[in-house]
Design goal:
This protein is an alpha/beta fold and about 160 residues long. The chain has one domain (about 1-160): Phosphoglycerate mutase-like (Rossmann fold, 3-Layer(aba) Sandwich). The chain has helices at about 30-45, 60-70, 90-95, 115-125, 150; strands at about 1-10, 50-55, 75-80, 105-110, 135-140, 155-160. Strands 3-2-4-1-5-6 form a six-stranded mixed beta sheet, with helices on both faces. Strand 2 (about 50-55), helix 2 and strand 3 form a beta-alpha-beta unit. Helix 1 (about 30-45) packs across helix 2. The protein starts with a strand and ends in a 5-residue tail after the last strand. The model has no long low-confidence stretch (mean pLDDT about 95).
Length: about 160
């Protein structure tokens, strides 16, 4: 079985309120709190997270690091992949299909609209766009990442920061 966790980055400083590029926007204090809380929840829901693959933008890397910190000394490896910065759904699928087959549980930390589009593509569930720091835990009975799309993933968990 393969488990894929989709995470939209936490709340970032709005582009119109900062002079930095979109790529370099920081999380807000609320975004940091939300990412820490989601990390704690995720550690309990999915204790064996093996890898986090994140967009290298500042807000996604901060989100990934805060989530990973919930595992303490057993933090999953974080890999930064430029293909996750504002990709299409097909580009996200290419990243998934290229995953090492020995990995069974992987989280992607990225951006909308592609994270929401990927959620719909893999589950077949029409859904509102994922809010900031939303997490969808998807499972598939396939033994290969390359077959994930055709397997139609089952939604195991869906959580937003508003879910306390």
């Amino acid at each position: 079985m393969k488990r894929l966790i989709l995470v939209r980055h936490a709340k970032a400083i709005p582009a119109e309120k900062t002079s930095v590029t979109d790529f370099d926007r920081d999380l807000t204090p609320r975004g940091r709190r939300d990412a820490e809380q989601v990390g704690q929840w995720l550690r309990n829901a999915v204790p064996a997270l093996e890898r986090i693959i994140a967009s290298p933008s500042k807000r996604t890397s901060q989100t990934a690091e805060l989530i990973a910190s919930a595992w303490g000394r057993n933090q999953p490896v974080i890999e930064y992949n430029r293909a996750l910065y504002l990709p299409t759904c097909d580009e996200l699928l290419a990243v998934i299909w290229a995953l090492d087959p020995v990995l069974n549980t992987v989280a992607l930390v990225g951006h909308n609209p592609s994270m929401s589009e990927l959620f719909e593509e893999l589950t077949g569930i029409t859904h509102q766009p994922m809010p900031t720091c939303a997490v969808a835990v998807l499972a598939s009975v396939t033994d290969s990442w390359i077959h994930l799309q055709s397997a139609r993933c089952r939604l195991e968990h869906y959580r937003t920061p508003a879910d306390k």
